[in-house]
């Protein structure tokens, strides 16, 4: 078993020395590959996320993610034990010297996406998980952090005690509530089906509310077993939202047409929600 795990580590280019053994594939985070492993020093199973530092952009993203995860410590946040360099060396804040970094974090048995593949949750389980999700979000937001990619695949579950933990902060940002970030917050965030109307209308100007919207979409998915708004593209996504919550200011209608992708025709037939007003 150990030999097979070492083979996985070799195939995926994991080089952490002999401390970590029995590597097994878990999945992909937004910024890197994730394997499970056994930490022989601490005698515990962990998740190991590999981040390749190939250029200044990836270095910047890695530094941001590491800075954020090091400042978060909460029962409903996936715990990060340490960040290591090649051969398990201590980075000591000198990330620029290395071509790869490894985030050693708490191992969780499954995630909400896999759980939902088995069917809808009971109302009691949905309430329990939603309470923990909101509890974790409250803590994240109190630290002036936006997660920006909340979705079932980034919400991890301990099947033994039904503890929920938010993970994968690869797209997270630290924001100062007293400073306007308009024009500086990047686009293309949050998996499309969990984007709020504000994020669809004004991708560079948003607040902590985008995480709350995503949380609401996740609650609906837990109760119904299907995504609440599963649009094929941004315009259809907005249509589905407005058909469910048909409240929009007149000025927002013009903004919607202005910011939607140019490949969508302005004569697109399904724009029926405006004809009803």
TrEMBL record:
Compartment annotation: Cell junction, Focal adhesion; Membrane, Caveola
Sequence positions that bind ATP: 50
GO molecular function annotations of the record: ATP binding; MAP kinase activity
SUPFAM superfamilies in the cross-refs: Protein kinase-like (PK-like)
Pfam families, per the entry: Pkinase (PF00069)
Cofactor dependence: Mg(2+)
UniProt domain Protein kinase: residue ranges: 20-277
EC id: 2.7.11.24
SMART domains per UniProt: S_TKc
Protein keywords: ATP-binding, Cell cycle, Cell junction, Kinase, Nucleotide-binding, Phosphoprotein, Serine/threonine-protein kinase, Transferase
GO terms classed as biological process: caveolin-mediated endocytosis; regulation of cytoskeleton organization; regulation of early endosome to late endosome transport; regulation of Golgi inheritance; regulation of stress-activated MAPK cascade
Stated family: Belongs to the protein kinase superfamily. CMGC Ser/Thr protein kinase family. MAP kinase subfamily.
Protein name per its UniProtKB record: mitogen-activated protein kinase
Organism of provenance: Octodon degus (Degu)
Name of the coding gene: Mapk4
């Amino acid at each position: 078993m150990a030999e097979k795990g070492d083979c996985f580590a070799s195939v995926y280019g994991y080089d952490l020395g002999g401390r970590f053994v029995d590597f097994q594939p878990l999945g992909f985070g937004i910024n890197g590959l994730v394997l499970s492993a056994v930490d022989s020093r601490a005698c515990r199973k962990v998740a190991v996320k590999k981040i390749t530092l190939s250029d200044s952009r990836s270095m910047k993203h890695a530094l941001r993610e590491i800075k954020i995860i090091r400042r978060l410590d909460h029962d409903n946040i996936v715990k990060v034990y340490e960040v290591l360099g090649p051969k398990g060396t201590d980075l000591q804040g000198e990330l620029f010297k290395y071509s790869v970094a490894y985030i050693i974090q708490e191992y969780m048995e499954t995630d909400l996406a896999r759980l939902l593949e088995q069917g809808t949750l009971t109302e009691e389980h949905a309430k329990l998980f939603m309470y923990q999700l909101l509890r974790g979000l409250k803590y994240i937001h109190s630290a002036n952090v936006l997660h920006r990619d909340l979705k079932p695949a980034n919400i991890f579950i301990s099947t033994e005690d039904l503890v929920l933990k938010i993970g994968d902060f690869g797209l997270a940002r630290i924001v100062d509530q007293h400073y306007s970030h308009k024009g500086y917050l990047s686009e293309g965030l949050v998996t499309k089906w969990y984007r709020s109307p504000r994020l669809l209308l004004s991708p560079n100007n948003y607040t902590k509310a985008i995480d709350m919207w995503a949380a609401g979409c996740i609650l609906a998915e837990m109760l119904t077993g299907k995504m609440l708004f599963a649009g094929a593209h941004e315009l259809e996504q907005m249509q589905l939202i407005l058909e469910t919550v048909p409240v929009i200011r007149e000025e927002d209608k013009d903004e919607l047409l202005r910011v939607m992708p140019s490949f969508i025709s302005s004569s697109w037939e399904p724009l029926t929600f405006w004809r009803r007003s």
